[in-house]
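User: I'm new to structure prediction. If I give you an amino acid sequence, what do you actually give back? Let's try with this one:
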Amino acid sequence: MMLEQTLSTLNLLKLFGMARGLDDRLKNPAHADLAHDEFVGLLVQDEKSHRDNRRLARLLKNARLRQPDACLEDVNYKHPRGLQKQLFLELAHPRWLPAGRNVLLTGPTGIGKSWLACALGNFAARQGFSVLSFRAPRLFEELQQSRADGSRLKLLAKLAKAQLLIIDDILLTPFADQERADFLEIVEDRHGRAATVITSQLPAKNWHAAMGEPTIADALCDRLFHNAFKIEMRGDSLRTSDDKKKS
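Assistant: Good question. You get back a string of structure tokens that encode the predicted 3D arrangement of the chain. For your 247 residues, that looks like this:
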């Protein structure tokens, strides 16, 4: 009876990890000889793990990653496409995120840019950072719609607040005037404050010309390229390779 009351109280207090841990550990003979402080310590760790897992699930759901299972541990360095393992070892330390350093992934279609962007997003979420991911065409569509329904400032604030923003497939087509202005707003809001991962089939050296309007292109390239990790990929598509399972 006392155990049932304790479990009920823990659940009432929303200490779900402790409630589940208490029930499981009392049934485990290996825990019978634990001192009280050791047993309580394990229950506290159960609660922390439960909350960490729930937070991670929430962060990944909000991130809307196209490939949520992608992770840096599975990066394929065997396929010849110019990836430097040392660079990804540096990216596997979260310091670049609060430092607001951008990651620019460029290369031909099918080379694994989007997968790598998702792997970086997955890593950031596992480190406790908030992540948002958009394909560039869909992002500009949402911004256009937000102007119509009056939610543009709210959407821009959401984009600025994300600790990691992923924009996939930028500059598939030249910017329209409004897209260029919107992109500058996004980049300006995040510059030096939060990290952004951008993928493009267009080499970074050609971005300025493709953006049009030289004055705005100057501002964009200055903010995007400053202190950024630039990963220029090349080679054959992974989609026709046996290596496609891991990018």
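You can read the tokens as a compact description of the fold. Here is one thing that stands out. The radius of gyration is 23 Å.
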